TrEMBL record:
<protein>
    <recommendedName>
        <fullName>Portal protein</fullName>
    </recommendedName>
</protein>
<feature type="region of interest" description="Disordered">
    <location>
        <begin position="443"/>
        <end position="466"/>
    </location>
</feature>
<feature type="compositionally biased region" description="Polar residues">
    <location>
        <begin position="457"/>
        <end position="466"/>
    </location>
</feature>
Length: 466
């Protein structure tokens, strides 16, 4: 892998977690005219405004807001696998969410569905000792080699990993998979162990951050431009801090004769000039122009990060937009989430398919990821509902339907039973209001014999005084 791609993956990781380049000023670039002490001091003052992490999370978290719907045959082995998929106690739901974030961050993740070498004599023994398939995540910058045949089928996949021996010494291991066998090599290329398998394919799942070709092992990362921009903001914030630090305390200037001893400039000192000058004593400070330029540029880049991510209408940037423009923004964001949701669903199905090949059991696995994320502006929805009611339609059915829209916008995650109860109460309220109107109508209807009524013979009833 070339150094440019390696740097890109490192930048993405550091920008997301706030480590490496963004820790204690490691990634700050020294200005050509900056002295070594000033550069060291600026690194100490450095801080990181992390926008990459929240932006990536905003593209993943809505998918896992609720538990993913899964249906399967609950076998004894599969139950243990779901509760601990990586032999570290991680459940499938938690593991999938973790890897989904990394797939979105890096543009792709690879999941090896491996199996143990030694098995027990019975299913009970295998369950007890967890002699079952397990998952290993491979980040793209750990991939060392791959190969496709003329049909586009993966026939070689190699990657490296770091392990720690009994003395806590770090060692690098290299793993090579083909459709029929596997190898483990040490850092010198010596074979440690090898074996064969009969599942007929390489047990690896490609998990893309967005739609990509299967033959594109290292697709471009969707959020690399975000991380690069965030890195530039990090640098600009450091320069701004240096300017503000140097300009916080103004310097007093005043006239003096030549007999005044030398003074050292500082927050408690003054700058002297010849007494023949006509200037009065005053405080001076450097021009604020550079600081204002930096602040304006930082604000612009922050807005650009949200715009590039496609979630500027959801977080971070408040804009005055028409209802139609907002709806288009919400539709775009919803589609991006739905597209990645499809990638997650396909990856999970592939993982379970490989489990079935290793475990030699069919679990009839069905999984359904959300496609509609109900991204609505609650304030806008309530305003539209009020405008609809203000039209004055004398229809209880119309009012009930508007009420349902309000419920969907204001309380999108309520339980179905609670939703049904609220709707039932609304409809009962309309029915009760209708009964009250009928009763009031009966009360105020003229009774037979009242003034103006016609008697049974068709003649006007007698009026007082007639």
């Amino acid at each position: 892998m070339d150094s440019e791609k390696l740097y890109g993956y490192k930048l993405l990781k550091d920008a997301y977690y706030g480590t490496g380049l963004f820790s204690v000023g490691r990634g700050l670039v020294r200005h050509p005219r900056e002295s070594t002490p000033n550069y060291a001091f600026r690194k100490k003052l450095a801080y990181y405004l992390n926008y990459t992490g929240p932006i990536v999370n905003a593209s993943v978290d809505p998918i896992f807001r609720d538990t993913i719907k899964r249906e399967y045959k609950d076998t004894e082995k599969f139950k243990v696998f779901l509760e601990d998929v990586d032999r570290k106690g991680t459940s499938l739901q938690e593991y999938i969410r973790q890897q989904a974030t990394l797939a979105k961050l890096y543009g792709v993740m690879y999941i090896i569905v491996n199996n143990v070498v030694e098995f027990g004599e019975s299913v009970a023994d295998n369950v007890k000792n967890r002699a079952l398939p397990y998952l290993t995540a491979v980040e793209p910058h750990h991939i060392t080699d791959w190969q496709f045949d003329e049909k586009g089928i993966l026939i070689k996949f190699a990657y490296k990993d770091v392990i720690y021996d009994a003395d806590r010494k770090k060692q690098t291991r290299y793993y090579i998979w083909t459709p029929t066998n596997w190898q483990v090599l040490d850092e010198n290329g010596n074979q440690i162990k090898n074996g064969t398998h009969n599942i007929g394919r390489i047990p690896v799942v490609q998990w893309f951050g967005r739609s990509s070709k299967k033959t594109d092992i290292l697709p471009p990362a969707e959020f690399l431009s975000i991380a690069q921009t965030n890195y530039h903001v990090y640098h600009l914030c450091s320069l701004l801090t240096q300017i503000l630090n140097n300009q916080t305390f103004s310097v007093l200037t005043m006239p003096a004769d030549g007999s005044t001893p030398d003074v050292t400039l500082g927050t408690n000192n003054m700058l002297l000039y010849p007494q023949e000058s006509s200037h009065a004593p005053a405080f001076i400070a450097p021009d604020k122009g550079p600081a204002e330029v930096l602040m304006a540029q930082i604000d612009r880049l922050i807005k650009e990060m949200y715009r590039m991510s496609g979630i500027d209408s959801v977080v971070g940037v408040e804009q005055s937009k028409s209802g139609v423009a907002k709806q288009w923004d919400f539709e775009r964001t919803n589609q991006r989430l739905a597209d990645f949701s499809v990638q997650c669903e396909e990856a999970e199905k592939d993982i379970i398919g490989l489990y079935e090949l290793w475990a030699k059991e069919t679990v009839s696995y069905e999984v359904e990821y959300p496609r509609d994320f109900q991204i609505n502006d609650v304030t806008e929805s309530l305003s539209q509902a009020q405008q609809a009611l203000d039209l004055g339609f004398r229809s209880d059915t119309f009012s009930a339907e508007v009420s349902k829209k309000v419920l969907e916008a204001y309380m999108p995650n309520i339980e179905p039973d609670t939703y049904d109860d609220i709707v039932s109460e609304i409809e009962e309220g309309f029915d009760e209001a209708e009964r009250d109107r009928d009763l009031m109508k009966q009360w105020f209807e003229p009774m037979p014999g009242d003034k103006g009524d016609v008697n049974a013979e068709g003649q006007n009833a007698e009026q007082p005084g007639e």
